[in-house]
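Standup notes, structure subgroup. Blocker cleared on the magnesium ion input:
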Amino acid sequence: MKIGIISRNKKLYSTRRLIEAAEKSGHEVRVIDALHCDIDIASSAPAIRYKGDTLEYFDAIIPRIGASISFYGTSVVRQFEMMGTYSINESVAISRSRDKLRSLQLLSRKGIGLPRTQFAHSSDNIKKLIETVGGAPVVIKLLEGTQGIGVVLGETAKAAESIIEAFRGLNANILVQQYVKEAGGADIRCLVVGDKVVAAMKRQAQEGEFRSNLHRGGSAQIVKLTKQERETAVKAANIMGLNLCGVDLLRSSNGPVVMEVNSSPGLEGIETATDKDVAGMVIDFIEKNAKPHKNRTQGKG
Ligand SMILES: Nc1ncnc2c1ncn2[C@@H]1O[C@H](COP(=O)(O)OP(=O)(O)OP(=O)(O)O)[C@@H](O)[C@H]1O
Ligand SMILES: [Mg+2]
Ligand SMILES: [Mg+2]
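Run returned:
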């Protein structure tokens, strides 16, 4: 098979591992930088020009679209879909997952456990907003943040109000969320491929920090999931329409709640913590599922 990895950098751990796994299974693999793709809009023959040449046909692509290039990156994935290439994650699903509010709305419609969350653009009653999610402490998040940046803990009602006012002054889209204290500064990353959690790790925030992101100094260890956690992760991935994703759960006193679903999950932390060949499982999934024009939306959404 001819597999394309849509990535800005060949040297990144995840990209390197996917190349390695694809080659090990005898596939031809090429790394494509989305920002160097020119999209050729032609109704009969959609094409992509890459660094001056027309790009050859790929049987499958693995999009790894960084948050900073969501718009152009997903447009390139959509173009591949229109050309008939199978994408492990569809462009519409990636776009959906990039917006925390939209993701939470979709998940809540289907009864997935979520932290109590309020979204408001210019609420007239910030106090009410905080009370609705259970009162302080509350978590305030920028809708398009990543790596824990833009996630703030409002420890008291007063602090929360000031933070919300400050974000609002910057015209930022935010959500206010119940702080799941009983999670103890830990979250669970479930790596989903298809309809299975293939690896899971628990990330623990460092002392004095509530955000467990590895980028914020959190540490990872292997964890055994409950059946309910496993089912929640797979269902969330399915609702989002993602075949490859990281579903982040918090262990709340009411069972697992989904915090977010990442469509370009990093492989380094999870492979290191679990010693599993996640990249190999991604390639296996592609071997079983890649067929021309198989994506559900094929650029329609
Ligand atoms: N409601 C909450 N209750 C308790 N802890 C939370 C809550 N929301 C977020 N956290 C903590 O803060 C961290 C960062 O939050 P979140 O994952 O929403 O942000 P992010 O910036 O999108 O991160 P990512 O890089 O994973 O996309 C979480 O991993 C978790 O440890
Ligand atoms: Mg995120
Ligand atoms: Mg997160």
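Discussed briefly. Residues 138 and 179 are 5 Å apart (CA to CA).
Next: hand off to the docking folks.
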